[in-house]
Amino acid sequence: MRLRDLVYGLYARRVESHLDQKQVPKHIGVILDGNRRWAKAAGGTTEEGHRAGADKIAELLGWCEETGVKVVTLWLLSTDNLNRPAEELNLLLGIIEGAVTDLAATGRWRVHHVGQLDLLPGRMQGVLKEAEQATDGVDGLLVNVAVGYGGRQEIADAVRSLLLEHAGRGTSIEDLAEILDVEHIAEHLYTRGQPDPDLILRTSGEQRLSGFMLWQSAHSEYYFCEVFWPAFRKVDFLRAMRDYAARHRRYGN
Questions:
Q1: Which CATH number covers residue 213?
Q2: Helices 46-67 and 234-245: angle between axes, nearest 10 degrees
Q3: pTM of the predicted model, to two decimals?
Q4: 49-82 pLDDT, tens per residue?
Q5: Across 135-163, average pLDDT
Q6: By residue range, what is the domain housing residue 220?
Q7: Binding residues for substrate
Q8: DSSP H helical segments within 107-248, as ranges?
Q9: Is residue 43 included in any domain, yes or no?
Q10: In a domain, 40, yes or no
Q11: pLDDT per residue as tens digits for the range 236-247
Q12: Residue positions in the annotated binding site?
């Protein structure tokens, strides 16, 4: 073991020992950013960057389990990403399919897809459905895999679902307008029934949400990490947990 790794390990254990378990976020949303830039900096290919990023996911989920996090939402593919050149997109889709299949195969986590399924190729749709079915009874960390996901699209889909539901009941637009409130829309989001994220974490130094969980993150805390996703370490995760625990959440006040 290199000296630097030993020092990081000791530091990580020190940070972890001082974490207040009562202040751990129950739901974390993670924007896994920086795969391509990490690969470029290392002299590697885009494929190597995406595969390294996929390999990091299980580590993150293990750290979340250790600290008491209950729900993790991973943004793996945005709706904007679907417009990438076919060669790159097909490569990325294949890597994501493998990552989702591997998560389900562990039997440790309950996998749930969030996103617009109809926008995705048939093979990807099948992989996501199979992962959900295979892990439906797992009593463990809930892992939302955001594939074909966009925050604006989610809100539009929620409103559409709400309108269709009430149309089926014979409710008029006028009657719906009289009773409509935020909870009606929340009940039709991809994450319905789940707690909103307490913490949104983004790697690679970018300080924006890019449309991630627009509705659910209204009262979330944000943490932006300079490290590219494939290089994200346990000590980086623990720093985010420590930073969150030190904040006084005011929920918009």
A1: 3.40.1180.10
A2: 50
A3: 0.91
A4: 999 999 999 999 999 999 999 999 999 999 999 9
A5: 97
A6: 33-244
A7: 34-38, 50, 78-80, 84, 202, 208-210
A8: 122-135, 151-169, 173-179, 182-186, 234-245
A9: yes
A10: yes
A11: 999 999 999 988
A12: 33-38, 50, 78-80, 84, 202, 208-210, 221
